[in-house]
Description:
Elements: E1 3-10, E2 24-29, E3 32-36, H1 42-49, E4 57-60, H2 66-69, H3 72-81, E5 88-92, H4 96-107, E6 115-119, E7 125-127, E8 131-137, E9 145-151, H5 160-165, H6 172-178, E10 183-185, E11 188-190, E12 204-208, H7 215-220, E13 226-230, H8 238-243, H9 249-258, E14 264-267, H10 276-284, E15 290-291, E16 298-302
Amino acid sequence: MSGVDVVFLGTGGSVPTRSRGLPCVALRRDGDLVLFDCGEGTQRQMMQAGLGFNRPTMVLISHLHGDHLLGLPGLLQTMSSFARDKELELFGPVGVAAYLKSLHRTLGFVSTFPVKVRELKPNASVEKNGYKVKTARAKHDITCLGYAIEESDRPGRFHPNQAKRLGVPEGPLWKELQSGREVNVEGKIVKPQQVTGPSRKSLKIVYAIDTRPCEAVRRLARDADLLMHDGGFAEDRKDKAKAYYHSTATEAASLAKQCRARRLALVHISAVTRDDSILLREARRVFKQTIVPKDFDVISLERPK
C-alpha cells in the first residue's frame, strides 16, 4: 500500500443524528488500523466500512467525554465475540486506564485478547514501527489531546546501476541498502547514501477535536497532509462555539491556513447544523482545500513519490 486510507466512521458530535454517528475516524495504514476516538456504535460503523476486527489496532482517545469513548465497551465485546487474538493498544489522557478497569469490573467479561493501556500527557511522543504518535493539549474544558501520526521519512530512490558500479551484487545486500543500512562488500563499506537519492517525505495526519483554535494544536499540525479539526459551528453560532470550547468552520480554516496544512476535514459537526454546505462555504472562503466529510467517506492519501 503506497498510502493511508482515512475512513470517517463518525463525524457528528455530542449526540448522534440520522446521518452522523459519534466521533471516530479510522486510518488503514500498511495493514494496521488506528482509531481516533470511539463513539457509541463504532463497532457497527466498522462493520459497515468492512474494516474487520482482528488486525493490529490502536485506539487513541482524545478526552473523557462520553461521546468520544462510550463506544469502547461495545467494540471490545464485539472483538471478543469474533475471537480476536491480537493485542489492542489503547492510548488516552490520564483516567483512561481507570475507565477500562471499571468496564471489566462492571460488565464482568474478560476479552479474548490483551489490551495494552498507556496514558499520555500533552507533548508526548511515542515511537511506533515507521511512525510516531505525538500529542498536544487541545483547548477544551477538560484535558483533551490532539494527536498527530507522523510517518518517518523514507529512504531515497535506489539506483541499481550505481550499486553495481560499486561492486554490490544484486540480492539481499541491495535490500539492506534500500533499508538504510550500510553493507560490507569484500572488505569495502558501501553506505546507503552512495546508492540512493535524498530521503523522501512521508505522511502526517492530525486529529484535533473538541477544541478552540490554539497555538499547541497549530504547532502539532504544521505541514500536515490532512488536518481533521473541530469545526461544526457556523459563524452565526460563534458565541456557542466559544462557550462549549469548540470551533467554527471559519476558525478551523484559519488555523489550517496558518499551519500550512494541505487539506482540512471538518469534524464534530453539531447536531443543530442542518445544512453542512454552510460550513463548507464559510471555511473555503479562508482555506479552499476544505471538506466536510460524511460518515463512511474515505480519503486516500498517497505518500509523496
